[in-house]
Amino acid sequence: MRIKLDRTLCDGFGICAKHAPEYFSLDDWGYACLKGNGEVPEQDRDAVMRALLDCPVHAIIEIPTPGSAAPAADPAATTARS
């Protein structure tokens, strides 16, 4: 898993640093900073995914890696065509 942090979206809630302090810290103004290069090993995936999903402004983005499964399409978003 690979992630990136869009600091322009961060509002400083700090939820990411609470859930995954090994990957996120807060700067002097309380905004999130990504620690490292965004590579997340499998054993840390759950904590980072929790941070990603709990971010109220969606500032954490999962970057697809080659060979990983693409996210499933939302069935509600597809429409039948006749």
Task: Break the fold down into its secondary structure elements and pairings.
Blueprint lengths: L1 E4 L9 H5 L4 E3 L5 E3 L10 H10 L5 E4 L19
Antiparallel strand pairs: 1-4, 2-3
The major β-sheet equals: 2 strands, antiparallel
The fold-level CATH name is Alpha-Beta Plaits
Distance between the termini: 39 Å
Order of helices and strands: EHEEHE
Q: Strand order across the biggest sheet?
A: 1-4
Protein structure class: alpha+beta
Q: Total number of β-strand segments?
A: 4
- Unreliable stretches covering 5 or more consecutive residues: none
Pfam family, one: Fer4_15
Protein name: Ferredoxin
InterPro entries: Fe-S_cluster_ET
GO molecular function, one term: 3 iron, 4 sulfur cluster binding
Give structural attributes.
2 helices; Fe-S_cluster_ET; single chain; two-stranded antiparallel ribbon; Alpha-Beta Plaits; 82 residues; alpha+beta
Brief digest:
With 82 residues, this protein is of the alpha+beta class. It has helices spanning 15-19, 45-54; strands spanning 2-5, 24-26, 32-34, 60-63. It has a single domain (2-64), classed as Alpha-Beta Plaits.
Write up this protein.
This protein has 82 residues and is an alpha+beta fold. It has a single domain (2-64), classed as Alpha-Beta Plaits, CATH 3.30.70. It is 18% helix and 17% strand. The protein is built from two helices and four strands; from the N terminus they run βαββαβ. The strands form two sheets. It has a two-stranded antiparallel ribbon. Strands 2-3 form a two-stranded antiparallel ribbon. It starts with a strand and ends in a 19-residue tail after the last strand. The model has no long low-confidence stretch (mean pLDDT 89).
